[in-house]
Amino acid sequence: MIRDPANGEKPTVFTCADDKAARSTVIALAKEIGFEGVDAGHLDASRNIENLGLLVGQLAYGSGFGNRVTLRAYVAS
40 — phi, psi (to 5°)? Predict the structure, then answer.
């Protein structure tokens, strides 16, 4: 389980690619399945996003949170 829809929180999907249209497509797909999509820019940003996965893994397994941990970015509009 990645999220609990009952709590109203939407985990963030960080998307990066050199093709802006591709990023927009992935963000739209993420929103369609209940996530919040964030455009993280060009492909060179992927190394930062990959490290977020390591952090989630550490919190889930190393710190014992299990499937109760996810990341959420709050972007002001």
Answer: -95, 5
5 has a pLDDT exceeding 70: no
State CA 26 to chain mean position distance: 11
Backbone angles phi, psi at 71, to 5 degrees: -110, 145
CA distances to 15, 65, 71 from 24, rounded to whole Å, are 9, 32, 20
* CA atoms of 58 and 52, how far apart (whole Å): 10
For residue 2, what are the contacts with CB-CB under 8 A and spacing of at least 6? 11, 67, 70
Q: What is the pLDDT of residues 8-22, one digit of tens each?
A: 778 889 999 999 999
The token pair at 24 is 């927009």
pLDDT, position 68 = 81
From the centroid of its chain, how far is CA 67? 15
Which stretches within 1-77 are classed as H helix?
Answer: 20-32, 46-57
